[in-house]
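Hey, can you fold this one?
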Amino acid sequence: MHIFLKLYLKHFCSLTFYNHENLNIEAPFFLVANHSSHFDTFVLFSAFPISKVNHIRSIAAKDYFFFNTCLRVISHMIANMIPVDRKKMDFSSISMIKDYLRKKNIIIVYPEGSRTRTGEINPFKPGIGYVVSNTCKKVVPAYIDGTYEVLNCYNIIPRRSKVSVYFGKPIVFEDYGNNKEEWEKITDLLYDKIAELKERKT
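Sure. Predicted structure:
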């Protein structure tokens, strides 16, 4: 499936990665990105060799992707999804995240909480600061450009459009404390880094 997706994205979307070398760090780490489309996860998976597919996880909304057995199975099979409750602190999911990180996994996170309705980056939920502070403090920011045009929340049929991903330099949050104020600082910094990638696109 992922081989097919790589080929599809390369030829249908002219998928291009910039500063790809920023992913060449030792796992575990979080890959944090903006969220415009259900294609985003496939795009980020495509940034890695097929041999790493089973060591990449993506955080997904429990109420959207796990409300029935069929969708739950598909979510696990295609995107190794970790279910998270968007409305409250989900300690069972955090425990699962910690377990995958101990196994040297890479975890994809979309701090906006849901897909943008406008194509612009929405404010980040503060939960990302808490999760980073309490699990793995190493993060690679990324800006995904073009997936909103391919398949946004208003469409069900993908359209042809160029897609690019801009990876930022890894950030290590070792010097940050573990309290609400520091979680907010982590959240704000990640938002700023991804917004900066959008503006620079280099």
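The chain has one domain: 2-200. Let me know if you want another pass with a different chain boundary.
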